[in-house]
Amino acid sequence: MKIEERRGIKIGVEVGGTFTDLVSVVGDEVIIRKTPSTPAQPDIGAFAVIEEAGLNLCKVTELVHGSTIATNAVLERKGARIAFVTTSGFRDLLFLQRHDRTSIYDIGYAKPQAVASREDCFEVHERILSDGTIIESLDVDDVRTCILPLLVKGGYGAVAVCLLGAFANPRHEEQLGRLISEALPDAFVALSSQINPEFREYERASTTALSAYVQPVISAYLSRFLETLSKAGFNGRFSVMQSNGGRLPAAAMRSNAITALFSGPAAGVIGATRRAALSGIDNIIALDMGGTSTDVCLVTGGKPALQSETSIDGLPVRTPIIDIVTVGAGGGSIGRIDEGGMLQVGPESAGAQPGPASYGQGGVRPTLTDAYVVLGVMRPEAFLGGTGKLDLEAARRVFEKLAEQLGTSVTRAAENVIRLAQANIVRAIQLISTERGRDPRDYTLVAYGGAGPLVASAVGQELGIDTVMIPPNPGVLSAYGLLASDIARSYGRTWRAIVGTETPAALASAVQELKDKASEDFSKFEIEGPREFFLSCDMRYVGQAFEVSVDLDPSSLDQLTGDELKQKFNEEHHRLYFHSSPEREVEVVSIRVRLTSPNRSVPPLRESPIERTSDTANVFVGDEVVAHTLRSAWEIEGTPISGPALVEGYTSTTLVPSGWTAVRDEAGNLLLRVNS
Amino acid sequence: MKRILEPADQAIISHALVAIAREMGAKLIRSAYSTIVREARDCSAALLDAAGRVVSQAELIPIQLGSMSLTLAPCLQIYPVDTLEPGDVLISNHPFEGGQHLPDIFVFQPVFIGDRLLGFSGTVAHHLDLGGGAPGLNNDATDVHQEGFIIPPIKFNLARDWENGLFKRIFSTNVRVPSQTVGDLEAQFAANAVGVVRLEELCAKYGFDVVTTAMEGLLEYSERRVRAALLAAPDGTYYGASYLDPIEAGQEPLRIQVAVTIAADSLTVDFDGTSSQISQNLNCPLASTVSALLSSVKMVFSGPDVPFNEGSKIPVTIKVPPGTLLNPVYPAPVRARLEAAHRVYDAMMLALSTAVPDRISATGYNTTTAICLSAFTERGYRVYIEVFGGGWGATSRHDGCDAIDSPLTNCSNTPAESLEDQYDFFRLTSYGLRPDSCGHGRTRGGLGFVREYAVLREGVQLSLYSDRFAQASPGLLGGTEGANGACEIIRGDVVIPLATRAKADLQKGDRVRISLGGGGGYGPPNERSTAAIERDFREGLILPGSLALYGYTNESAARR
Description:
The complex is a heterodimer. By secondary structure, chain A is of the alpha+beta class. Chain A has 17 helices and 35 strands. In chain A, the strands form nine sheets. In chain A, strands 13, 14, 15, 20, 23, 24, 31, 34 and 35 form a nine-stranded mixed sheet that branches. In chain B, the strands form four sheets. A six-stranded antiparallel sheet of chain B has the order 2-1-5-4-3-6, with helices on both faces. Chain B has twelve helices and 19 strands. Chain B has helices spanning 7-30, 35-38, 68-78, 158-162, 166-173, 178-206, 208-232, 286-302, 337-355, 416-422, 530-538, 554-559; strands at 43-49, 54-57, 88-92, 104-113, 116-126, 154-157, 236-244, 254-263, 266-270, 316-319, 369-377, 380-388, 426-434, 448-455, 460-465, 486-491, 494-497, 501-506, 511-515.
């Protein structure tokens, strides 16, 4: 069995907005493919890329899939028709929201559109308080005679149930869930006490409603996918990426769809983390720069930062998600002078169509890509390994007007656009590092995506980072990350206690309950192999509304004292907010447990050979032409090359500024370092 | 000679200055203790230059827009910049020294780079209770002294004088919930410290001179953006008036009168004709009037993307006669100043509706309804304050937003589950949209909403201030008016209506019901699209009784 597994084919297929990427590993052999995505039915593109790679699905032992299907179902409002059931008096929870607005000077402000319609929202008589006390029992007769007939009549694909206080006491929701399932055996029923047992009713209701909304879509998609797989003779394991950076067997995902939101960027972060680990680096800032935007994420000690809440299209979702900040700076970002005479770059983008002017598809506005073409960093003769076309004259033309407005030369205008785009990325990184009490200088910048390696060293320099890592084939790192990821599932619940001497013991038993549930689930999903638990607690000073997440070692809770727990929180609070108040009482609000089945075999990845026509390239630095050493990414081995240099790969170009040295290390990663 | 910066440097430093103010604001909210700051986000953060001009401000709450410089100026008159030292704090809440109302405490910290003063980081937060005649809110006050603890512009050194110092001891003794109030104030100090550190980092990278030049450039930039927008608007003088409910039934309503003159790229606003100041707490201090006015100018003329700063004020001239509701003099009480501030916004919209009808909205409910429930319990004073908006006015293209805070404020609600957790003397029993409370029109106003509380013990006090119980939000260009608001105590079979500014002793078992009104409609209802009418009807937002207004009969709706 073991030998066969090693010989088996492993495939990661990542469906992005524009391209569907495949990374396949058979022993030491790595296959990489990119095909256009098929947004209407993403699985068509996924199977097309597998076919194009010439892979026989009968021999595939492991297939990991990442897609935007959940995200798109919400963004395009193409989820199931759902009913929403809540406590009497609170029917409008999904529409009242939080009574505030995200853009405060907009006269025509509209709230985020809920995923349920008001006519599909129902009330049941019951009330449970925040401490779990039942003060009004569920009126079952009323449910049977009034609510169930309406639910049956409505023909809903899914029903979301969120009752007040259910995070503390799930009894009424479970009762109601059973009644609804009996009446509507085909409908998916999402209970807030199972999806997200945490307080604050609107956020919990929104999460539950979204879960109900995407569940039938995911379920149908995965069923279709599995059917095609089994027709092709596939007999391996099929798993799906989640927003928390771990994957789950498809069968488990069909009852846990909310975790599939935003899984794409998560896979890239995992890919970057695993590649860095091979070089012995475990503190990284992941920088994924594509055509329209850049995603950045902080990874400390090999663990990507997680956040427990995010929003999609303005609707709150409470599910653990890798803490990624996105900024509108990508290769297609447009540079312009605004009405007040200020230079701006992005978030407006030339997108895939028309694309940058240098792509020759009708783009007439200066983009970041055009700026690099103007400077000579992106060379027409080397684009896509010499197979693509770049129009230098078109790029210069679109920059002439901007240069005139700025009263400077074309190359300086291009440099200004690049610097501003880089600064936007720097600010995004500061948001996830300095603003969260972390010093970026303690991290290695890992850059990928088509444009990441172009900006990496400059962004690093701005932040005082002296080491930059570029993984091989940086354009397909997300698909690679699928293969490199662990199986993981997150569990959380509200658990309240003011920290005292007994707290650690009580905490340990609450944690044990979550651990038991997690272990049970893993057994149910037939996930074998070693298991690892991770634990964090959301804590705050009594009276605060926002919690600070404190990581704890789940195996040594019995040795922890109440004072030590407080101390850990005080330190975290001080790091984040520049102050702490040790004299104040501290409370635990939520506990979060994550169970993983670690993936011990990180697959290889390497550059594809491409032709190189010259040893040097001329690049503009200001108005001066500076000769840069030119190398292909695949030919750089142990011998360091000194900047200024360009390292050209099939999917991207790495800029090595003067004062920096680039070397490919034993793990196969390209490392750029500031000369000491 | 004026320095010229690289275009990218000007943009990068400008963005950084805005980002610093945002970080300060976000950290203030996340580390604060009282619901009014942490949930309602009634606070603001800004960076100011050495001359005390706001350079960048976190976009948190419009009513604190652009007035921080007015509060800092009197501080600097007493403590000139050359007497300041690193670690000093300037603090004030004085309504007649550039402040707003007493709960808003302004804190400034000078930023020194070496021995040169770069500017100030500043925050303001609404504090839960600053003493005065009643917990949280004293509606009976006839002068400012009865409203609470007045902090004139003072200076102390944070490291040396705060902990166990004179000010902290006097302050914490004179407020009813010292743990939360002192916690919030310390969160302000910490947020200011964040601003100082970030500005130091910025100067370490770019240098003092480049940063000050970029600050200047950012002020000029905002000014240019506002001037460009004004230039595009038609010249002329436009008039608008709005009204606050009369103090007593049968009296005249209070009038806010505005004359707006657009001349090329500048704007003059004259409030001559506005009612005189009164001895109730509806007076609106000058700083609040200025903020309300600048917010409406920003919303109409510069849109959301122009960073607000002192530069945007330069093209605007403001004339407010002293002794009026909008520029009261000592000792006027000012606690409920937001109501008049909202009417400044309303009058501006009406005046500009003839100049730029596509950029304004019909009048919204635009009223702050502040409810305060308090009790003295075994654990000391417990004070709950929450503020509510209503439905927004419709614009030429969009329906007004339903059940949301007013344009000048941006407070979120407190979840029912958080309330239960924090307060044991009342409970929220329902919270829902209020069907048909909108003004009807081609585009309809936003709906109001209803909240109901159950009182769980004896000895609970209610205080309330609000408006629009008597006069609704008018519609525009053929649209109809929104519904009024109301607050009632339901005691058994008896319903006791309350006035807009009220105080009541509650009994165990009472229910308190607050109804918030809707916004005005825009354009004739019979021009509304059939699809929109039917959707509203199907969802129960419009009731059968209103269908006729839209030229729709019950029968025709029922057939569908």
